Amino acid sequence: MSRELKLFNGRLLDFQHGYIAAYSRADAVRLYDEFIGGRGTLPEIRDYWNKGSWGNSMIGVTPRRGMFAQTKDGALVEFTAFGKHKPLERDDPEAWEAYQAKQQSERDATQADAQRAREERRERLRILADGLCLDDATFDGDVITFSAGFEQRSYRYEIREID
């Protein structure tokens, strides 16, 4: 009977993110110490690393016992010895590409929704600007500006819609 791997992800100095596949928290600490050099402690893994999650950057990588990291430029590496690592190839690059395409699609949809909301807000403000019937009211798409004088003083007002 093979033992089940427990997955961890968390911060890792000099890298963007770290990933550990180990048989227990104690095993994760041993791997951390072996590859990073005595800086891993049980509280570090327990309190600052997420247990049970491989992390989105590891999509397409089959879990196996070891320690991995994502570099600051986004590349994945696998630790081989103290302070040494090698590039990590994804076992299923199509899964990673599908995840990236889905993320981009969600970003595009969010940007389109935000643009629609901006256009709707501008239209509501334009209708309001037309309805004010003030001689000096100006509308620049996001703000209605007009002046009014009271008791020999002049005031400048802006009307804007806040999300």
Give, in order, the helices and strands. EEHHEEEEHEEE
How many angstroms separate the termini? Answer: 57 Å
Spatial order of strands in the largest sheet: 3-1-2-4-5-6
Number of beta strands: 9
Quaternary structure type:
single chain
Category from helices, strands and their pairing:
alpha+beta
In round numbers, the mean pLDDT is 81
**What profile does the largest beta sheet have?**
6 strands, antiparallel
Shape: elongated
C-alpha Rg, in Å? Answer: 28 Å
Residue runs with pLDDT of under 50 for 5 or more positions? none
User: Number of DSSP helices?
Assistant: 3
In percent, how much strand structure appears in the residues? 25-35%
Proportion of residues in helical segments: 25-40%
Q: What are the key terms here?
A:
alpha+beta; 3-stranded antiparallel beta sheet; 6-stranded antiparallel beta sheet; 3 helices
Description:
The protein has helices at 25-37, 42-48, 93-132, and strands at residues 6-10, 17-22, 49-51, 66-70, 76-81, 84-87, 138-139, 144-150, 153-159. With 163 residues, it is α+β, with helices and mostly antiparallel strands. The strands form 2 sheets. A 6-stranded antiparallel sheet has the order 3-1-2-4-5-6. The chain has a 3-stranded antiparallel sheet with strand order 7-8-9, with helices on one face. A hairpin with a 5-residue loop joins strand 4 and strand 5.
